[in-house]
Design goal:
single chain; mainly alpha
Length: 91
């Protein structure tokens, strides 16, 4: 359970990033969450009890998020192109 405090902090920053109004720059919630995390660390520092969860979030969850975001983009492009694109890929 040593990861729980850091995961809670990560989750709170992620929720804040989702709740921020549109920023006008076209930045997604993942980028905003990373920036918020950097600002939080600069101003408040990181206590040792948060470190295991933050390390897990930065190394594992962030990578999974990037992979899922890429998969969503590819799937969206496939849907936009239509089913005919599958035939081109097969042959």
């Amino acid at each position: 359970m040593p990861k729980v405090p850091g995961l809670i902090l990560t989750g709170l920053l992620a929720l804040l990033a989702l709740r921020l109004p549109y920023n006008g720059f076209g930045l997604g919630p993942m980028i905003i969450a990373i920036v918020l995390g950097g600002i939080f660390r600069s101003y408040f520092g990181i206590q040792a009890r948060y470190q295991p969860g933050l390390t897990y979030s930065a190394k594992t969850l962030l990578k999974a998020g990037v992979v899922l975001m890429g998969a969503r983009l590819h799937f969206g492009q496939l849907l936009t192109a239509g089913p005919g694109i599958l035939l081109l890929d097969i042959f």
